[in-house]
Amino acid sequence: MKSLVLAEKPSVAREIARVLKCSNKQKGYIEGSHYVVTWALGHLVTLAEPDDYDVKYKQWRLEDLPMLPEKMKLKVIKQTSHQYQVVKNLMNRGDISDLVIATDAGREGELVARWIMEQARWKKPFKRLWISSQTDAAIMDGFRQLKPGRDYDNLYAAAVCRAEADWLIGLNVTRALSCKYNAQLTAGRVQTPTLAMIVQRENEIKNFQPVDYWTIRADFGDYYGDWRDNKNQGRIFDVVRAEAIVNKIKDKNGIIQDIKKELKSDPPPLAYDLTELQRDGNRRMGWSAQKTLSILQSLYEVHKVVTYPRTDSRYITRDIVPTLPTRLQAMQTGPYIEYIRPLLSQKIQPGKRFVDDSKVTDHHAIIPTEQRLNLTALSVDEKKLYDLIARRFLAVLYPPYCYEQTTIKTVVEGESFVSRGKVVKDAGWRTLNSHTQEKEDAKEENLPEQILKEQRQGDHKKVENCRLNKAKTKPPARYSEATLLTAMESPGKYIEDEELREVMKGSGLGTPATRAEIIEKLFNTFYIERQGKEIIPTAKGIQLIELAPPSLRSPELTAQWEQQLTDISRGKSSKGKMIASIRDDAGEMVKKVVQSSTEYKPANVSKSKCPLCGQNMLLVNTRQGKMLVCQDRNCGHRQPEKQPDTDIFSRNKNKERVNPRLMAQYSDKQDLGQSLGEKLKEALQNKEKNK
Asked: How far apart are CA 506 and CA 496, in angstroms?
């Protein structure tokens, strides 16, 4: 008898098959003496479409909403049905005794396998491979310590609940909005509150009224000082007061009232989880969150030099500590040699800032593996991302950055001026050039650092020069992908309920694995666009937030759901209870959309006519440039802005070459283009009638 191993992707399956010594390659699987390794292609099975429940749902009509099936059905995805059939046939083979789930070790990976098992009616025993890296050693060790499959039933229940909730809310609200306003409008439990945060920030910027303020800097010859009040604030909002202070201290003598010297240390930054790595990818390289994830996935699956990417933890467990020397030795090449030698020369004893079992759930932080590093095998972008991970990993193992900070308080005519400088005692982890997370929207008025000579308390200092600087208060900054990821991870300030705000600290909008996808979806549906690194909501995105049900705009609903999903995965709550609540929410949201009196008016209507239906098209910005998109949801035609409206001559809507024999029937390209446009329009209308 043999064990069937189900991986999530062909590339992972091939590696597992090689490690398990399976070499007999067949169509859709690889067989060995003890194992048969097969794979999914992402999801092979998904939730059924609305018209799978009732043919009336083929047409989108308000009167048919809400759609609330009593029991959610599954269906095989048509495009990958051939591979599903391979897996199903293997499951039904008489010599297969059990199944090993080897899909990604997380909520979505569990769903991929379990839905296939449910659709194929798998009844035999099954186990779970749960590993955090794709190295040969990790795979072998994982197969020696396979977990009971039933240990992950709660994780599966949470995954199913998430999928069904998104179906019930997303499809119902999307259809309600699209039907009511006859426009291509979509909504969802994560994408809509994320968009709402972007729109809210834009409104704050537009409504912001700048206020003048002044700062004062005094030059004492060998150092300068910045004015501070008794609350350590440096901004003066009254010009008369500011000028009075300047006039009062001009050419006067002050006295050094206080010199404070403190030994300070900055601990190393925490190791990377996916969200923090995506933030740094955006800050340092300007990459989208999706690009960072894609490159990271390659480092994990293809090169096997980093651990599991889709993690929300920034710590490792105690059992990983003995492997740290091996990991360091494996990456001891190129620019890392000089930093690794000092670490290997002594016993490695990381503290609680890196090792904390209580802060690791499914997977630990992203760190290098024991796989020997070959930098020449990596692409330019892969090297850049690996460098971030490697330097952060080494930084965590280095000592703190230690320095002596000197603060001088000079008083002139009763007014205080503060100066700050520091002397580095031990560069520690900063020798690695591994930066800490930037503070978003920092409110603290930091004093600038300067080189300070030795001074003595009580010394008199003359004001050599005094400068009054005028400035304006600034609106909050627009989101970049880095700051948007931060807001999605911790959207607490957008939630009024204090208890729910605490809940969101551990969950946020979406998961580390899905946030990049959500951001991309907002771009692809033309709700947001980029201006440099800034993310700006489009007129369509701003209007959608006005049209969407109020409860769906706020992170509160997602906070409640994320908490319930977490409780389900931990066995503290039931799937049935949450879905019952979701069904009620879906019905209420549809009702709100139907009753709404808000109007929808596209603000980006162009003069270009749609070649299929004749309506004016919308001009939108995409990553590929400006596009023209038909505003009629039943049509959906799109084309580059510079393409003529009737440019159907070279390629039709399905991107197929025009038949040369058909070409010969027409005297010129214009006749052919018009004819094909009419034919496609007629075909589209017939398709709608057949629905």
From this structure: 17
Is 156 part of any domain?
no
CB 125 within 8 A of CB 147: no
User: 647 Cβ partners below 8 Å, 6+ apart?
Assistant: 611, 639, 673
Whether the pLDDT of residue 662 is over 50: the answer is: no
The candidate with the shortest Cα–Cα distance to 95, out of 29, 37, 39, 36, is: 36
CATH number of the domain that residue 256 is part of: 2.70.20.10
Reported as half-sphere exposure (CB side, CA atoms, 13 A), residue 395 has a value of 23
8 near 94, Cβ under 8 Å?
no
The catalytic residue positions are 308
The answer to whether 554 touches 193, Cβ cutoff 8 Å, is yes
Nearest alpha carbon to residue 645 among 673, 605, 624: 673
Sequence-distant (≥ 6) Cβ neighbours of residue 564 within 8 angstroms: 161, 573, 577, 578, 581
Give me the domain span that covers residue 85. 2-145
Q: Based on the domain organization, do 91 and 220 belong to the same domain?
A: no
The DSSP string of 441-489 is T--S-PPPB-------TT-EEE--EEEEEEEE--PPPPP-HHHHHHHHH
The answer on 618 and 571 residing in a single domain is no
Task: Give the count of domains, the chain.
Answer: 5
Q: Determine the Cα angle at 385 with ends 382 and 389, to 5°.
A: 130
Same domain (yes/no): 426, 544: no
Q: How far apart are CA 632 and CA 614, in angstroms?
A: 10
Taking 80 as the threshold, does the pLDDT of residue 174 lie above it? yes
Contacts of 438 (CB under 8 A, 6+ apart): 283, 482
Q: Which residues contact 414 (CB under 8 A, 6 or more apart)?
A: none
pLDDT band at 561 (very low <50, low <70, confident <90, very high): confident
pTM of the model: 0.81
Predicted confidence (pLDDT) at residue 547 exceeds the cutoff of 50: yes
Which of 205, 202, 170, 203 lies closest to 186 in space, CA to CA?
A: 170
State whether 644 and 534 are in the same domain: no
**Domain end residue (candidates: 397, 427, 459):** 397
* SS3 (DSSP) at 15: helix
CA R_g for the chain:
31
Q: Judging by DSSP bridges, how do beta strands 616-622 and 605-609 pair with one another?
A: antiparallel
Residue 657: the pLDDT is 40
CA–CA gap between residue 71 and residue 202 (Å, rounded): 41
**Residues with Cβ < 8 Å from 311, sequence gap 6 or more?**
273, 274, 362, 363, 364, 365, 366, 512
Cα(67)–Cα(235) distance, rounded to whole angstroms? 57
Any domain includes 168 = no
Mean pLDDT of 380-386: 97
> Of 94, 100, 82, which Cα lies nearest the Cα of 22?
100
